[in-house]
Amino acid sequence: MKEKRKTVQTRVQGYKTIIVDDDPLNILLEQKIISEHFPQLNIVAKATGISDAIAAITVHSPELLLLDVNLGEREVFEIFNEVHCTAQIVFVSSEQKYALDAFRYDATDFVLKPYAKEVLVSAISKAVKRLEQQRQFYEMEHAYWTGNKRDFITISSVERHEIVKIKDIMYCSSEGRYTIFNLVDGRSLIATKNLCEYEEILERHASFFKISRSQIVNFEYVSRVNKKNGMYCEIKDGKMIPVARRKYFELNRFLNGLEQ
Question: Are residues 238 and 120 in the same domain?
Fold first, then answer.
């Protein structure tokens, strides 16, 4: 029914990388550094403005972003008001004052212009190391889940690991780089992993369906689907969750399957 996401980014393809800078010469410099030092990176797009950057991120879902902070009269942080992105981020700026803002967006590193080549190489190396660690984790997780189907899930936060029965999850939502799990007992648990990292695990269970980019719903707890003025799932706790328009047809097929 649904196309499963690819859990592991292969080394042959390379980690998808996007460079954003309003100066084409800076883009060429960063591109040269990447080509000389990082064969595991694949530059899939370059952008010089906010709109182009948003379009590129939306299309390519990159693993690594190299972002200049000042893009003309605008700041690159505006991008994150428009797109959801879980990439490693290296911010580059000629002004130190943006460093704090950069790390509020979970920056992997902040590089101050002008920089020595070794400084940028070090920052990108840090991002690549994190990507490799994620890949290894996904491979182990995928290998486990290929042969096993547990009835519980581990929700990891900064402070603890919560063990939760999958049947007790009513719905979960993406909030930036975090995922909020809403449980039948009224609790809300915040996980430090992105929603996409839970998608394959949850959708192994027949009652779960991803109704939008930011919401996965357990239809064991959906009392009805309203189709007036759009499509909404009404959860048994009273919450109304909108269904993305692009999911209407797929959801109808899913619901028809539940009737069989």
Answer: no
Give the domain-ending residue among 145, 172, 190.
145
Going by the DSSP 8-state scheme, the letter that residue 6 receives in this structure is P
Q: Where are the alpha helices (DSSP H) in 38-147?
A: 50-60, 99-104, 117-147
Of 139 and 165, the one with more pLDDT: 165
pLDDT digits (tens, 9 = 90+) for 30-59: 999 999 999 999 999 999 999 999 999 989
Q: What are phi and psi of 227, to 5 degrees?
A: -115, 10
Position 145 pLDDT exceeds 70: no
Q: Are 198 and 149 in contact (CB under 8 A)?
A: no
Residue at which a domain ends, from 145, 164, 188: 145
- Whether 115 and 124 have beta carbons less than 8 Å apart is answered as no
What percent of the chain is predicted at pLDDT more than 90? 52
